[in-house]
Amino acid sequence: MSTLKLLFTALVCLLILPSFAQTKLTLEDAVLQQYRKFASDNLFGFAWVPNTDCYSYLEAYRTLKKASFTNTEAKTVLTIDEVNTALNVKLPWFTGFKWLSENEFSLSDGSTFVTFDIVSKTGKVVATLADDAENALMDHQNKHIAYTRNNNVYLQLVDGQKIKVTTFEDLNIVSGQSFARNEFGISGGLFWSPKSTYLAFYQKDETNVSNYPLLDNSKTPGELKNIKYPMAGQGSEKPRVGIYNIASKNTIYISPRGKEDSYLTNLSWTPDGKYVLIAEVNREQNEMGLHMYNAETGEFVRTLLVEKNEKWVEPEHPALFPDPNSNNFIWVSEKSGFNNLYYYDINGKLIKQLTKNDFVVKDLLFTRKEGTEIYFSATGESPLNTMVYKVDLKGKQELITKTPGVHSVQVSTDGAYVFDQFSSHSIPGMSVIYDSKGKKEKVLIQSPNKYEGIDIGTTEIGQLKAKDGSVLYTRLIKPKNFDASKKYPVLVYVYGGPHAQMITNSWMDGASLWMHWMADQGYLVFTLDNRGSAERGFAFESQIHRQLGTLEMEDQLTGVDYLKSLPFVDQERMAVHGWSFGGFMTTSLMLRKPGTFTTGVAGGPVTDWKFYEIMYGERYMDQPEENTEGYKKASLFSYTDQLKGKLFLIHGSIDDVVVMQHSLSLMQQFVEQGIQMDFFTYPMHKHNVGGKDRVHLMRNVLNYILENNQ
């Protein structure tokens, strides 16, 4: 072959080679792009058009598209610029989109509320609220707006009238906002009655709750901002429920039937609008009563049901009324050991236990207009899945989603069609529509693997057995070019606390992308969901009662033993990292099981449960004076002299969830004992470090492990 041909062949090879080359994953992309450029394709903002087989979705947030089940060719309906021009508003996108009828929808960015007709291309501005208005909520008739300003509740009526519902000058009295630190499923504090004749709202008196100072270092000099933070065993909120009558302009209040610091939760209205149902939980959280009150007078009517448990009772789902013409309701209860659905009449008589599953019901999703069927999400046969079922009022249950994975569904208003968006270990993402009988199906989107061409490792999902025989799920991420003949260091990523599950049958298996970056540095990244973690039922989750950290560590060490049994694991180079409860677990493992890990990085760690808030802490640990030994055993202050290896604590300077006192107090103990450790704070960040600063955080965490896990 001539020299010229050789040069030409070499040039062609150089030109072709890059198309086969793999791109290295950068840490910046791993932290910031998992849910952006690497996110699986889906239909954003999907919504069924009422009483039709049509649906809509958003394209690039600013364009409304519409199609139908019988004709999936989507057409542009209008853009947000057209809405803004027609109504002279400045909505950034189709925020708060909701269909009101076949042709009309509403939008809200929290301060501007509008309705718009797609046929006439006209609409109206329902309300424009003050800049400091918060928690705004439009009523069911789409005419009145309730909102809060500072600590009081306000209304703006359809006629433009503005009403100050509460007039408390004492800042300890907070109305219309979520309370109980957002426990018990609480996410808001305003509740419109079905016919919009009443507004119910949560109210809390925080007079007995201690102030906790947070430093604003952006000011000169720095300023202290006090928040209310109820620590375990100390003064708690005193709750009430207010009900404002729009016609009479009168407000009545409902107080706990038990002690004044009991919890009032899971408020719901009966369909006729005459009564409110409130789940009251005692401070000990071992007894719950579902009480019924007259909405006009506030008078107690009756107790519909009572639940007790020596460990805890934790209602998280308000009563659901499947039939708009009946006050019979569905209650989700864990009394059988797993969340199941129970159908009651309004006198508190059990009509039917609708489900008898030995798996967890996660959420109630939809009821048919005539109230005959209820759709709900649940784990199904595998706790790693989120499947969707329906059950009728006779207890006939049917699995709607057939493919294992993590599903999110929306059902058309007549119950005829189901939109299903899901992923799994092997499916990056799919968006499909099928009829409720399962006979017809249309695939709208089948997402490609966005990691194609990226140097990324493999993930293995496994199972281990806890000492009590419980199944423990594991996730092991290996480098792309894994070689079983080599020895690899390990990073154990841990959370381990209640209400969280790290491993799921979803795309990426619940892992953060930075874990794959770490694998690319030559690491194995391992995670185990221990006893106490979510979606496993009461027996599995409640064993941690009064002894946080003990069984969780036992299970994590079962995972460590498994890792050490693998011939490709370097037993002398094992590190551990976690945040929040995972920070507590990381520090616990470093101090209570010294020598297991060479290196630990604990973010926002709980170090002593007496510093944590009442609603969560007392559920699992009781009050400090009731569980002296349990608090002492869990307190990390008892083990600081046992530290072996390198420990790095990280904390946001204005963390209002796990306050800085946790890390400062533990560090003080280390200093007094002359023990060295490392610490870093993120100024003006709360419990989680977000935005671009998160890249700095993860580089901080992972570099520390790479440098010290030797």
What can you see in these coordinates?
It is a single chain. The protein is an alpha+beta fold. The chain has a domain at 458-502 and 521-708: Alpha/Beta hydrolase fold, catalytic domain (Rossmann fold). 16% of the residues lie in helices and 34% in strands. It has an eight-stranded mixed β-sheet with strand order 35-36-38-37-39-40-41-42, with helices on both faces. Strands 13, 14, 15, 18 and 19 form a five-stranded antiparallel β-sheet that branches. A hairpin with a 6-residue loop joins strand 9 and strand 10. The two termini are 53 Å apart. Mean pLDDT is 95; it is low at 1-20.
Indicate the structural class.
Answer: alpha+beta
**Proportion in β-strands:** 25-35%
**Which architecture of the domain at 458-502 and 521-708 per CATH?**
3-Layer(aba) Sandwich
Largest sheet: 8 strands, mixed
Which overall shape is indicated by the principal axes computed on the Cα atoms? globular
What is the oligomeric state here?
Answer: single chain
